[in-house]
Design a protein that fits this description.
It is elongated and about 100 Å long. It is an alpha+beta fold. Strands 1, 2, 3, 5 and 8 form a 5-stranded mixed beta sheet that branches. The chain binds copper (II) ion. Copper (II) ion binds next to strand 6.
């Protein structure tokens, strides 16, 4: 093998290696970009598919309210929505059916808005409505612990104009 042959072989190897490196780089860049897109989309859609455990989440032009009720009351004391927007209440009862007072059921009712939702023991129940009339209302549970009169079993529901 002549000296120039060796040189040529060496250069060929080098070119091959460079090509492989470029390819690896391209694939890695693509994977990184793909991961980024997946995370970005996941981050943006997270409130739609997995709303916060508890609290008020704005989804488009509506609100999703996740609220938990137990013997010591509701975990969200005040809810604010805008008049005309769609409101979804997901009421979760944290109590089991062994409770003598109410059997583990809890309620989310607003008389003025015709809302009356009951969650079964250790379960979630949902309702969707549109709050049209601005005002300050009371939501309450009248099933357990002294019911409506118990200050821990009610909260403020504000419909802003
Ligand atoms: Cu209750």
């Amino acid at each position: 093998m002549s000296h120039s042959d060796k040189e040529r072989l060496k250069r060929q190897h080098q070119a091959e290696r460079n090509k492989q490196r470029t390819q690896i780089f391209r694939v890695s860049a693509f994977v990184v970009l793909l991961l980024f897109v997946i995370f970005a989309v996941g981050y943006l859609l997270a409130p739609v598919f997995a709303p916060k455990a508890s609290g008020v989440t704005q989804v488009g032009s509506g609100k999703i309210i996740n609220i938990e009720a137990a013997m010591d009351g509701f975990d969200v004391p005040e809810i604010r929505v805008k008049a005309g927007e769609q409101v979804t209440i997901n009421l979760r009862s944290l109590d089991n059916s062994m409770h003598t007072d109410g059997g583990g059921k809890h309620q989310f009712a607003i008389d003025e808005l015709g809302v009356n939702l009951v969650a079964q023991p250790m379960s979630t129940n949902s309702t969707t409505f549109t709050a049209t009339k601005p005002g300050e209302y009371t939501f309450y549970c009248d099933i357990c612990c002294g019911g409506k009169a118990n200050p821990t079993m009610n909260g403020k529901f504000v419909v802003e104009a």
